[in-house]
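We store chain and fold; example below:
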Amino acid sequence: MPLYCGIVGLPNVGKSTLFNALTSAKALAANYPFATKEPNVGVITVPDERLTKLAELVQPQKVVPTTVEIVDIAGLIKGASQGEGLGNQFLANIREVDAIAHVVRCFENENIVHVDGSIDPVRDKDIIDTELILKDLETLEKRLEKLKKQAKTGKAADVKMVEIAEHIIKELESGKSARALDLDDDGNQLVKELMLLTAKPILYVCNVDENSVTTGNDHTQRFMEHVKDENAEVILICAGIEEEIAQLEDYEEKLLFVSEMGLNEPGTNRVIRSCYKLLDLITYFTAGEKEVRAWTVRKGSKAPQAAGVIHTDFEKGFIRAEVIKYNDYVEHGSESAVKEVGKLSVEGKEYIVKDGDVMHFRFNV
C-alpha cells in the first residue's frame, strides 16, 4: 500500500506551484481560490547521494531510485469543518494521507490575491489548525457517545476508554494537536483508529520571495517563533523559482541556476527528503551489475519484510540476508573487497534493517 504525503494550506499560498516543482505532473496553478478541486497525485523521486555513489562503484546497467507519492489537496478556508468552501472534501482528503506538508505564504505580491486580504502566515496556520481540531473534536465526540454506552456495563476497560476520549477532547479544546499529546498505548490506539487529522506528522514549508530563500524575512521569523515548541521542521523555499528549476532539462544548467540562487541544491530536494522522513521511511540498497536500486521500507522493518518489497516470494521463502553497511561498501569499493576484510554480515529473520544497508537476500520457493 503506498504512503502519501499531502500538501495543504489556504488557497493561493503556492501549493500547486510546489507540487508542479516536485513532480512531473502539471497541476493547475491559478490566481483564484479553489483552483485545485480534486486532489492531484504525483510520484516523486527521492534524491539520495548514496545511490549515485554506489552506481559509480558498481557501474550497473541501470540505476533505479526510490519514490514517494505526494498529494496536492484543495485549499482550505475558515469554516471548512462545517463544510464551507470545499471543506468536507478537503478534510476527507487529509484523512487519507499519512503525513502533511503545510505550505504557508511568506511573500508579498499584490498581483496574487490572498483570501483574507493580507499576508500573515501565523494567522493562516492557526486557521487550518482550528479547522482540523474542530473536525477531530467532532469525530471524538461521536465516538465518546458510543464509548459511554459501552461503559454502562461497568467493565474497567470501557470506563478507561471513556476517560481517555474525554482527556483527548479536553486537550484539543485547549488548542493542542493530537500529535502533541503524551498518551498511553490505549490512547495512541484510539487516535490511530479514529485517523485524527491533527495526529498526522507535519512539515511546514514557508513559501518566500526570491530574495528571502536563504535568509528568510519578517514573516518567516514570526512564523518560526510561533511554531518553535512544536518540534516540527520548517523549510524555506521559493515555489516559483523551484518550478523554473524543475522545467530545466539540462542537469548542469539546473546546478548553475541553484548556485546563482545561493543554494547547495534545489529546495524541492529538502522537501522530498523531509516528507520521506515524516512518513517514517528508510532506504536500503541492492547493488549488482544489472542494477543498483534504492528500496523503501518502514523504519523498524525486519529483513523478511524488506525482502518482500522486492517480491512476495522473497519474504515467503526467506532464508537469510547478506548485509554490507553503506560506509563499508564505499570505503572498500566493492562487495568482494568487503567480504575479504570480513565486513559482510549474515543476518536472520529478526534482523532490523538499517537506513543505508546494502542487502542481498537468500530465499527458497
Notes: The chain has 14 helices and twelve strands.
